[in-house]
Design brief:
The protein is mainly alpha-helical. The protein has 6 helices and 2 strands; from the N terminus they run H-H-H-H-E-E-H-H. It has a two-stranded antiparallel ribbon. Helix 3 crosses helix 4. The longest helix has 28 residues. The chain is globular. The protein starts with 5 loop residues before the first helix and ends with a helix.
């Protein structure tokens, strides 16, 4: 096997840090959402539906995940009364998912908490670094 270049090694380290950061962010998300009766994964789904109804497949595409894993989260949200299904005029086999009043109440509770948390973390990072990281992650996403 050929030796890794410095660029390849740096990218591998970046990917590893993204995985670790994702785990840490999910843990923080779970702590932020517990009182609202959600997990971080459920919060992501509910947050995407804040802009309007969507199918499970659309949610999976937006999150870059497998439809099956998103469907499991959706099923829990349906059981917990956070989502409802409605007919989809474009595809009878793929119902549209909508937020319930319970989900909207959870989002109202979580909005200020998330903003406070984000402000506290952002205040400890140089703005230029955050902007560079955002550009880098978007470019990486587009390349892969």
């Amino acid at each position: 096997m050929p030796p890794r270049t410095r660029r390849a090694e740096a990218l591998t380290q970046l990917v590893n840090e993204i995985f670790v950061a994702n785990g840490a962010l999910l843990a923080v998300g779970d702590a932020l959402t517990a009182e609202a009766g959600l997990t971080a994964a459920q919060w992501q789904v509910v947050g995407f539906l804040e802009d309007g109804p969507a199918t499970a497949a659309e949610l999976a595409r937006r999150r870059g995940l497998r439809r099956q894993s998103v469907q499991e989260t959706v099923n829990r949200l349906l059981r917990d009364g956070m989502l409802s299904r409605t007919d989809n005029p474009d595809d009878a086999r793929a119902p549209l998912l909508r937020l319930t009043a319970k989900a909207r109440a959870a989002l109202r509770l979580l909005g200020p908490r998330q903003a406070e948390w984000a402000d506290a973390v952002a205040s400890r990072l140089p703005s230029a670094d955050v902007e560079t990281t955002l550009r880098t992650l978007r470019a990486l996403r587009d390349l892969v």
